[in-house]
Structure formats: structure tokens, C-alpha cells
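Follow-up to my earlier ticket, as requested here are the two runs.
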Amino acid sequence: MKDNVLFVNITSQGLVQIANYLIPLLLIPYVTHKLGTDAFGKASYAQNIGIFLTLLVNYGFDYSATQQVALNKEDHGKLQTIFSTVILFKLFLFLLSLLIVGVLYLTVEKVHADVAPFLVVALFNLGWVLFPTWFFQGVERMAKMSMFTFFVKLLGALLVIAMVSKPEDYCKYLVALTVANVLVGCYSCYYLMKQYDLKWQTPEPFSTSESVRKGFPIFLNAILINCNTCLGVFLMGFYMSDAQIGIYAGTQKIITAIMMVSYQPLMIALFPRVSRKFHDSKYEGWLFFKKCLGYIALYATAVSVATYVFAPLAVKIILGSQFADAVSLLRLLAVYPLLASLASTLTVHGLYGLQLQRFAPLIGGAVCVTSVVFNYLFVPTMGAVGAIYAWLICEVVEISIAVSLLMWKKGSICLPLSK
């Protein structure tokens, strides 16, 4: 807190995460009451597919482009080139995401039977094409962006209330969230260009761009690791009813909101600082990283304990009485904030900070294989509980591999004998 810029960035990121996750979460009692578990399950299933499309559009830029902006923040011409390259590449990925929806329409019966919600969640990512979170993270100026993000998300909430009144409106629920995200993207991009006097420059060739090149292993890792959280829901579509999917999805939304509001601001705000520490001195960077890891572990433990204790109250307030079965699922997931915080800190701040992105696909591949094996073993017979067991096992696998790689790398860091 003595470092004013870092403190402001962390609190600002907290507001961003509240806007992005807590406001939609507070809408859930209204939405579930109006839609019911079946329609809510249909909307959640489409959103599950949308997660992968969002990962595709965001690529690895939240870390690779953030890192490039942080290292070149005094070079205005370079910043303009980075900005133009990232936006153009994201637009290409957005068009690719629409093509993927078309392929799903032709090959997956559940999508073919009702393609509208899947198309809407794909259009949601047009906002992420323009939303320059990575730029503001790199220059460590998040406060103003957090404010207009909050108010536009609030507009999205008002749209949901205005548009959703019966089970048949589940697609309108997704439309309202999409409109909000696109508005955030358009306004934030306009604000950024005005604030930093950014003009469109000839983009770098994608094959030589540092942001694209270094972002690829991070992107691949994110896709593979998110199989952990999304594959279970996808398989449930073949074995469980929409209502059961809705209960599990409600539990996911609570635990995700807890993570995004409690831990994500720390991770995003600290990443540029850790990257520069490692860039300037591997030794000092290592000390700073270990310090962050210790505090994050203590904090995440407290969050996990609170999640377990207050699970019944959280389900009752957020989801409603018809989601009572979600209490046992949320308590089973209570350890997730601790495991996920450790896994993310070790991978993002540790490995990425040390420029070891090349190992990201190794971690992602191991997590993906673990997820496939255990989800296929557990979900058909255990349903949602099996998906949660697979989810937690994958976090343990990621932690184990990341720790092993960091201990191996530690041996090559020259530590002063006096220390």
C-alpha cells in the first residue's frame, strides 16, 4: 500500500472485476426466477462454448502484449505499432470464432437445434476485440477505465431486467450481456486512442510480432487448461438435463465471481511489476515473486475458508431456493480459490515473468489430458460431482508441474553469496 501506483491499480482492478462478474452475478436471482433452471441451463451451456471463443479472441495478449507495453511504455511509436498489431490480430481471431460457430452448427445437434444463443455469445467477443485491457495493464493506469467499465456493465444489468421476463427470453439475457460488452469495447478503445494519442500504424507482420509470438504458448496453455473447467459442462449436455446443468453452472458462476473479485485484481496488477523485476534482475525478481506468492497463499486460504463457511448463504442469496443442491457442490469447490491462486501465480508470475512461456503448452497439455481422462471417467457416473473432482485434480497437476519447472530454473539464477 506504500506504493501508490500499485495500490491504485489493484483497487481499480477490483472495481473492474466487480463490474465484470459481481454485477452479472447479482442478476442471477432475477434471471433464474424469470427463466427457471431449464432455460438458465440452456443459456449457461451456450456461455460455456463462449468461454472457448473468448479465449481464442483474447489470445495470450493479456500477458504478452501487456509485457510489451510495459517494456516500451516510453516509446510512443512502438506503442502505436503494438496497438495496431494486437487489434488487427484480434479481429482476425474474431472472424475465425464465427466460423467455428458455423462448424458447430453443422456438426453438433445441440447447437443445430438452437443456434441463436451460440451466435450471440460469439458476437459478445466483438467487445474483446476492441477492449484494450492489456494496454492499460502495461502502462499501469487502470483507475479511469475501471469506472466506465462499471457503468457500462450496470447498463447491461438494466438491459437484462428490461428484456428478460419469461423462460423464452433466455437468448435475450445473452443479448443484453453482449450489448454491454460491445459498448465497453468501443468506448474504451476510443478513450485509449484519445488519452494516449494513438493513431493507426502499419501493423507488424504477425510472424515477427513479439506480442503474437510470445502470446501463442500462453494462448495454447489457456485453451488446454480451460478444458479443465469447460469439458465437464460439455459432457453434461450428453448425460444430464438442462436443469442439472443450470445448477452446476450457477455454482461455477459463484466460484468464478469469488476468484475474479478476490484474486484476479492482484494477479493483473502485479504482473507488469513482476515482469519488470525479473527483466531488471532475476535475483531481485525471484525475491519479489516469492514474497508475492507467500502473501497470496495466505489470502487465498482465507478466501477458501470463507467460501466453505458461507456456501449456504451464498447459494440462498445469489441463486435462490430452487438451487439448494448447489450448496454441496460449492462446498466441494471451496478449496478451489487456494489451488487456483497458487497455480495461476506459479505459472503466470513465475514462469511468464522468467520468460518461460515456452513451457506453457507443456503445462496446458498435461492439464488437458488429465481433464479428459478424469471427466470421461467421472462425469457419466457421478455427474456434477465428478466434474468438480476432475477440476480440482487438474489444479493439483498444474501446481506440481509449475513448481518443478521453477525449482529447475532457480538453479540457473546466480544468487549473491552474501544473501
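Run two:
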Amino acid sequence: MGLLTIARRASKLALGFDMAKDACKLGNARCVCIADDISPKSLKEVKYVCRTEGVPLYSLAMTMDEVGEQLGKKVGVIAVLDSGFYKKAKTLIEEISLDDITY
């Protein structure tokens, strides 16, 4: 989580579903990270956007409340916008398969 805090201070994150979705569609997102307690509907939409746009999806293994405590904003979806932060983050968090999407 410390890495995401540093990325937030450097303005290298898109916080929230809509901002993360826009970052993916614009090609700015290097990966998307989600909290464990986002709704099933949001999870389905995030997986769809990530699969469509070719963006890897990762689990933070934290709740939205825990993310809020660390980042100062309670969100369940975060897009990482910087390649360096992404390279380090992918070694610390678990990737989520995008193959099990049902439409």
C-alpha cells in the first residue's frame, strides 16, 4: 500500500471506477487494482473494461475502508498510470484472471 500512497502523491493514480475506466479507454492505465469488497456488478464492469482495453487487473487484498485510510479517499477501483509504479506493484499484488467474464 505504501507504493500506492507514493503514486497518489505523484499524481500517478486514477481513483474511482469512472476515472479508472476513462484512463483505460485513453490508454493511460498500466494496470487496474481493486478492493476486495467492491460490488459484483462493479467487478464485472471492471473486468469487462480491462479485458476490452487490454489492461491487467490486480487485487489489492484490502477493503475500500482500508484503501480510504491509506489514500485519503474511499475507493474500490484504482488505475495506475505510471509504468515504473506498475512494474513494482505487479510484484507485490495478485493478478486477477479476465477469462471468467460472463456477459
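The only thing I checked on run two: The beta strands are 13-15, 31-34, 57-59, 77-80, 94-96. Let me know what else you need.
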